[in-house]
Amino acid sequence: MRAPLSWLREYVRVDATAEEIARRLAVSSLEVDRVIEMGVEDVGDNLSYLRVGRVLSADKHPNADKLQLCQLDTGEGEPRQIVCGAWNFGVGATVAVGLPGVLLPGFPAPLDERPLRGELSRGMILAEDEIGLGSDHAGIMILPDGIEPGTPLSDVLPVHEQVLDLTPTMNRVDLLSMVGLAREVATLFDGELLPIAVDDPPALETEPVDVTVEDPLGCPRYLARVFRGVTVAPSPMWLRARLHAAGMRSISNVVDVTNYVMHVYGSPLHVFDRTKLEGGRIVVRRATAGEEIRTLDGIPRKLDTRDLLITDGEKAVALAAIMGGEDSEVTDATTEVLLEAANFEPIGIMGSSERLGLRTEGSNRWEKGVDPYQAEAAAVLASRLLVDFTGAELTGSTDIHSGLPERPVVRLRTDRTDRIVGLVVSSEEQRSILDRLGFEVSEDWDVTVPTWRARDVTREIDVIEEVARVVLPRVPRTMPLRRLVEGHLTGDQRLRRVLEDVLTGAGFSEAYTWSLVANDPDPSAIRLSDPMSGDQAILRTTLIHGLVEAARENVDAGNAGIRLFEFARVYLPSDEQLPEERWRVAGIAAGGFDAARAAVEVVYDALHLGLRVRRAQRPFLHPGKAGETDAGWLGELHPALLDGSWGVFELDVATLIGPVPERILYDDVITFPPLRQDIAVVVEEEVEAAALVDVILEAGAPELREARVFDVYRGDQVGEGRKSVAIHLSFQVPDRTLSDDDALVVRQRVVAALADRFEAELRG
Amino acid sequence: MDAEALEREGLAAAAAAISADAVEAVRIEFLGRKSAIKQALRDVRDRETGMTLNAVRERLETAIDERESVLARAELDARLTQERVDVTLPVGGQTRGSLHLITQIRREVEDIFLGLGYRVVDGREVETTRYNFDGLNFPAGHPARSPLATLFIDEETVLRTETSPSQIRTMEMQQPPVYMVSLGRTYRRDTPDATHSPIFHQVEGLVVDEGITLADLTGTLDLLFKKLFGEQRRSEFRTHYFPFTEPSIEAYVSCHICDGDGCPVCRHSGWIEVGGAGMVDPRLFEFVGYDPERYSGFAFGWGLERIAMLRHEFPDLRELWRNDLRFSRQF
Questions:
Q1: Is the dihedral of CA B226, B230, B236, B241 positive or negative?
Q2: Of A310, A674, A710, B275, which is most buried with the most CB atoms under 10 A?
């Protein structure tokens, strides 16, 4: 919404600059995108160089076929000679003149006197685009007759304009109107609202207007007026200038009136060429399935039964509230007009607008819920202007509705305002704010909401907000009392941070990858009903593929030492409405299986958990380098997925941290130090380290405290298909220091068990 | 034997020794088993002579020990001087990982609020329309309910469009006082560009207690801004509209680049929009069974990406999803 300030000031008297108004509105009313400066710069005496002139003579330039040599009366006593390239005027025309010295928009320097093809030109006759009043450059501006030559042009036209570019929130459709903005400005600055005085033109020879509303829920009000004797022509200059400043294009007097009045009251209007309506009739109904209408923009629109149509009983003539039909459009030849000032229900209009991908100034207002009372004021002003501008006569009028909505009445407790806002606002001030906003407040604080806020303000809290937003700049900054509260992370949240820290300490950088993926290994993974693209169609059940892509990006970027982890959720299908969301931690690191194993080891160690890895298979892992733990899997990424050797892992966080001890008990390993010995045994290649260790620990209990494989040797000395495994043993009991003899006994038990279980031979 | 001469001779020999070996030779010569002094001590008969000789022996021992330690120190110094390395030469070795920038900001925000007595709540990402819309007072026909704005799984299940459903779930689970923040992924049907992403992160805050005011909200947000953007920041609050708060405000912070003078980052306004907030709408209290006459509350919800981009001045939000180490290791 663009609000030219000169227009706004016609409805509110306020002593404030554009910047002050913009600042105050931004805090208390609506978003102000910017203040746009339009037209001729108002600096120094620049505007004084713009005058009204009358053409005294206009003849072909003696030395140029395309130029005119003119003498003008610019109120200086002497005629002024100006060379002009336009031909759309003659002697006696009233025009706008720029005198030498004026700085025009888009010009690098002030205008100067100069000879043009040998004739001195002492100024410029102006076209509307040259002073920012419009976009037309077909000819110079013709002003109405009767303005005294020499009159400052700024007295006649807004040659300098400041325009507020505004975006109201969706509950404030009333601010998509000049009167709504004027009321807001009057409230915030304690200014005076200036009413729009307009007389409804008399209907002399009346005729019936045939309107049927078949869908009163979709169209609660339909006010129609008929005009005969319409002459379609360009609008007067001031109207063109205003529409231009408000960001709208001038079309013709009839269409411009509807846009102008929509801007004034916020209630969109539409005009039909009445001779194109079968029997001059209007029928408002839902479309039939597959029905088509060609809208004003020339595009055929296919409709369904949810779309609301304006028809003439035979054919569709407008897509209600959104856009008119091409067939019933007002053209230069139009002589009879049917003016529609209706009201439409917002949700249906929004649906149609979305389905058809068609948003207009009209639909933008209707979908937010326009006040049905405004239709009448809009119809009256539009009628007045149509009669004035087109020479038409009002010949018929009808207003179909089944009662307009009641205004809500809300009881306000002014002390409740204070308790919600945290600021004492005197009841006099509360009353005054509400009064200026158009609320009626009774002696006992029954607040009657104005029609234009009736959708939005229905409860006490809504009325409190009206006061709150006006006093917002005065609201102090305090802190809540916070009795009976204490802040802490839950155990799970704390452990999640530990995991993050351990992995970053191990050189892993955290990655964020998309939860929506193109493919997922789980065929029952949840799919979006209408994804934005195939790449984001499925809620992932594993993090690994995102990390593989992230690693690939880093390889392509030429980065070295790539180690990435991600901490995110997966979404597992369940029997409930909602999937099971589980935190996972996953990683990828250059360096093959060992890199994954090292990361998983440090994770388990940091959580005080024992790590047990079993051989496993996963389709995305190297078949010989894949394992699983109780919480997930680890391995070397299948080389088909990414060049190089990459270690990868993924662990379910809840499963992982479930067994983490809440409290760690002291274990005395210091008073009686351990006795350490190493052994090496030769076993078949298939025997895995974990199996050896399990048997050793079982056989060595209780004196054997720790057994750890530290080397594996293969070679001629141990023979084909066999390996020598070196194991570090640590003997310790809590109540005495063990002797070599004690250790020997335990060691013999261990060796015997290994021989029994794996046919292991003690080496060396 | 002339003890005095022997001592003079021994002290001179020790002082003249220039290596550890030479000192050892001196020690053997003057203090060894076959040395003159040891011989003399073995032959001594009277107490006085014995004391004199022992004193000489002790003085020689001390002198030789001292000489030995001086020489050892000199040798060590000489060796260390030779072991000089180029300390300016990097060795690599340990690589540091880094938390994602959004995680870092998430933790900062969590820690600020933990210190204020709030708890951190983990919300769900896949939500029912009941929690994502109905409970938050989104009216029928609100644009957010449209599949053009929201990602649906079925008619009653969506990817949460804001972190606010966690408000409803928290209030359903417990009685006031509620002081909580909730941070996580949120989803909207936005085409990715420099400032939009269909997946983004929000921080949600909710307080419900007796006597909570709009002033408490502005005070809390003012504090948060100062922690995130610097102690000298000022805040401004402007009226806004959200279905779930009434009154609703939008929070602005004075531009940390120009401090309010106007620059491209704040689009010459001096203020930067951070996000929405407001007093919890009484309808939410009715929905969860709280008494709106007894309790009031405030809530806020902002994008973390926006905070990251503003604070660290990078122009394209998609960097946060590209996981390029050249980006992430900067933070």
A1: negative
A2: A310
